[in-house]
Write a structure and sequence with these properties.
It contains 15 helices and 17 strands. The chain is α/β, with parallel strands linked by helices. The N and C termini lie far apart (89 Å).
Length: 513
Amino acid sequence: MLALRLTNIDFSYGARKIIKIPSLAVYDGERVGLIGINGSGKSTMLDIIAGLIETNPGRADLFMGISYFKQGIKGSAAPNAEMLSYFDAKEGLVNPSGGEQTRYKLASAFSQGSGLLLLDEPTTNLDLDGILLLREAIKAWDGPVVIVTHDEALLSEVCGRILAIRAGRLVDFPGGYDAWLDEEEVIKDRAAHEYTAYLKQRRHILRAMQEAMASSKAVKKVPSRMGNSEARLHKAQSTESSEKLAMRAKALLSRLNRLKAAPRPVPDRELAMAFSSPSADLPRFAAIAQEMDLEVGGRLLLSKASFQLPTGTKTFLLGPNGCGKTSLIRRMEEKGDRIVSRNVRVATMEQDLADLDDSSSALDNCKAASKRGESSIRTVLARLRIAGDMVHTPVGMMSGGERMKVSLARLMLSEADLLMLDEPTNHMDIESSRALAEVLVAWPGTLLAASHDRAFIDSVADRIIVWNKDKLVTHEGNYSDYEHERLGLDQLEMLASDMNRAYEASKAILEMK
């Protein structure tokens, strides 16, 4: 029996795409685990199913009753005596603990006894006995169940189908959680290999285009101390050479345009779960600057420049040394300007790492700034290559690169919504830069960073802001996307120049005759 059908769901928060589901059916008796990184849209999907969020376009059709255990709200119905007794829950408690509140809400959700059951993090604050009671209740439920939980053991024990949200799209896996983990490893390894190969091939073509265009420009120059007749002859000869180079650049551009893009691998699930979920109350844009002037030491760096940082995006600032990238980040820290939107919590990495307590360990430095548990903190530090007993090393005894990684971990594990970084890979080796890229991709907040590390930008960025004289120009995509776009425009200009030179050369040859 069909219990639920979703059709043409395409949901966004402002500019941020949350989830797209062409079609989905859930049948009576199924136990479905809904998984995804923090902020991927799991709770939003449950709200859509429950009819709490309207989707346009799209439809959510229910063919039976529904009971919803939802984070942050009380149970929708009074629990019956049987479920109160089963979950050892009590009514009318003054200042109940988190676990007591969860037990009461579970008793309320399960009192209906049948229909479609939606569970959003039902193990929150539950002890082991409570989780085991929940497990048996799910198994005995008369109807389908869709559950969102970070409890992997529970997923493994009760779910026979997995729905995974990956980059705004739903992957439907017809098997249990353990089988999904095996499949996920294969998918992750394949995706990482394909993405690395794609970036390598793309960079090779871009480099070849740059070389062809540089050579074309070189042959256009007329050598000094050359007479008029010799100059005209040189123009005629260089035209043929530059046209060949232009054709090569054009062929490379065509090859680049035909190159099949490989999607960036999804963030590691364990790493993503180590971070706090973003607040649902965040504005559409984490920061907005409109016609902003930036002046430092009497020098005008920006004049009536504008840009936006959509919430949840990773944006990199590009520009030559001294253009003002660091000054812009400092300006955004000033609360008086209100470039950063209200209610957006900002964290900035200090270049001197003054936020660190040198006498405390890496672990304690992170604990001091985070509400996350020790397991989550250790996960993030380990991914940044600070693992095992090293987490207990006083920060003052660490190298510059290790101290920077502790500072970055501290910021990402805080409650910050917007992270602003100035050359974060300075003092880091290649392996550490790659590790930081992986962690930043998994971090669910908004990022603004200045960097000259092209491979690092390629791995993390989904937007580029380029300093163009005293203005800022935004490009969607990573560094290779920006190079592709820029070289494409340069190629058009070069071909136009070649056509003009060919015309001038033909005139010169006729004059020589």
